Amino acid sequence: MRLKEEYREQEVIKKSTFIACVAPAFSEEEARFYIDCIRNEFKDATHVCHAYIIGDHGQIQRSSDNHEPSGTAGVPMLESIRNSNLKNTVACVVRYFGGVKLGAGGLIRAYSGAVTNALQHARKLEEVPMHVYQVKYPYDLVGSVEHWIRTNAEILDLQYAESITCTFITQLKDIEDTIKDISRGISIPVLIEDTYKEVEVQEA
C-alpha cells in the first residue's frame, strides 16, 4: 500500500505549530527533492524535520532531527511510517516554535503523532489481484454478455468483425461458467493473464 498523493495536516501543540507533509517517493532522489521543496516553502520555520522509507522492502530508511534534540523528531517520524505499513513514503514536519518548550517526551509525541495522523488521513492506493480475459460473442448477445462485462469488469478493448471480441479486466476469477451460462453455451472467456492494479483504499 502507498500514498496516492501529497497530503498535509496542521496542529497546534502548546503554541507551537506543527505542519505534517507526507507524499509518495519512489527513490531517495525523489524523497530528497521533496524535502528540499518543503524547506524552501517554509524558509522561516524553526525546524523542518524529515523521515523516509524507500523500496518495496524498506531498504532505504533515513531521518533527520534538523536541530531538534537528538532522537526527538526524525526517528519517531520514521517509526510512524514503519507502523503505517506504507511503502515509498516521505514525511516532513514543519515546526514553528511558539515559546513553550515541550521537553523530549513532548517532542517525540508531537512529531510521531503529526506523521501518524497525516498518514492515517491521506488517500492511499493498494494493489489488488486482477484477471484479464478475452471473449467472443455474436452481436445479439450484446444485451446479455456485454452487459454483464460492463457491470462486473472494465473493458480494455472491443474489436468488431463478424462477431465481437472483448478484452476486459476484473477482480472476479473463474467466470468461465458464468458467461457460458449467460450466452447459452455460445461464448467461453479465455484467461489471458493474472495481474495487479492499484485501486484507492476505501476507508471504513
Distance between the termini: 16 Å
In which range does the helix fraction lie?
Answer: 25-40%
Supply Rg. Answer: 25 Å
What can be said about the biggest beta sheet?
5 strands, antiparallel
Morphology call: rod-shaped
Q: What are the secondary-structure elements, in order, as H or E?
A: EEEHEEHEHEHEEHE
- Oligomeric state of this protein: single chain
Structural class: alpha+beta
| Share of residues in strands | 35-45%
User: Runs with pLDDT <50, length 5+?
Assistant: none
E-strand count: 10
Write the topology of this structure.
Blueprint: E1 2-3, E2 7-13, E3 16-24, H1 28-41, E4 47-54, E5 60-64, H2 74-84, E6 89-96, H3 103-121, E7 124-137, H4 142-152, E8 154-160, E9 164-170, H5 176-182, E10 190-200
Antiparallel strand pairs: 1-7, 2-3, 3-6, 4-5, 4-6, 7-9, 7-10, 8-9
